[in-house]
What we know:
The structure is a single chain. This protein is α+β, with helices and mostly antiparallel strands. The protein has one domain. Helix content is 23%, strand content 33%. The chain has 2 helices and 5 strands. The protein has helices spanning 44-57, 98-108; strands spanning 7-10, 21-29, 61-66, 73-81, 89-96. Strands 1-2-3-4-5 form a 5-stranded mixed sheet. Helix 1 (44-57) links the parallel strand 2 (21-29) and strand 3 (61-66). It is globular. The model has no long low-confidence stretch (mean pLDDT 87).
Amino acid sequence: MIQDLDTWVLAISDSADDYEPLALIELKRSSISPHEWKPFKDDLPNYMALYRLSEKAELPLWIIYFTKEFKRIALFKILSVNSSSSNWISYEKIVLTPDEFKQQFESLF
């Protein structure tokens, strides 16, 4: 399986030696409204690999979903991914405007 990692969120400090990763982030984009979109079960192997990586790295896993119009952003804090359950993914979801996202960025991660 080939897996990409879209980004790490880093804590910014005065010294380059003090940069610490805070989260793993998977970026998703399509034409579905951020209020309506949710992770597709067809992508389970991808989410399982990312979730296992986040567990090993002891970092939270987030999905950030947006459309080309970029009027709203859906943020999913992934709580669990389980391949043997009908409830295959568990998450907390919030939808924000880009400005709200910028204002709340530090407190989210």
